[in-house]
Amino acid sequence: MTRTAALTPDQVPAESKPTLEAFTKNIGFTPNMLAAFAQSPIAFNAWASLLGNLSKALDVKTRDSIGLAVSEVNGCNYCLTVHSFTAQHMAKLPADEIILARKGHATDPKRDAALQFARKVVESRGQVSDADLTAVREAGYTDANVMEIVALVAMYSLTNFFNNVFDPEKDFPAVAPAGAI
């Protein structure tokens, strides 16, 4: 059940309009999550800035896979629909890789290490072990890359929490519940 309304274009605060219009132009429509999030220009524009900067971190397959892993842990069905769609259509991940990513794994060893680490970060609230940090470093990630993984976990958790609190109407294709994968 939706807990906040998606804004119509004439209801969007002036400070949110340019950001929302840019997303709409880029995506081809206005997702309900963005139309709801735009109610707070401060939160919406801060998140959009973070998203824009982190779109340069790592590669698209790893970013989308981290989004899937984090959204699965946080139980965000809206984000799972979005990340499943983008993983398939933008990152070109096959269906079996999308399922693996939701479980915190990948067939590519380096990406697998990033996903296992991201999952441990969110599950432990950042209290990872020395062995966890060593494993992601040994897979070929620099400390700067590890910081980017942590930032991606935080960014995806932000939208997970937003969507879990406000439950916007889903406007991406549904995905199977975690128990079915």
UniProtKB/TrEMBL annotation:
One MF term in GO for this entry?
Answer: peroxidase activity
Cite the InterPro entries for this sequence: AhpD-like (IPR029032), AhpD_core (IPR004675), CMD-like (IPR003779), Uncharacterised_peroxidase-rel (IPR010195)
Which ranges carry the Carboxymuconolactone decarboxylase-like domain? 44-110
Gene3D superfamilies annotated for this entry? AhpD-like (1.20.1290.10)
Q: Which residues form a coiled coil?
A: none
Q: Which UniProt keywords apply?
A: Oxidoreductase, Peroxidase
According to the record, the signal peptide region is none
Q: Which top-rank group of organisms is this from?
A: Bacteria
Matches recorded under Pfam families: CMD (PF02627)
User: What's the protein name?
Assistant: Peroxidase-related enzyme
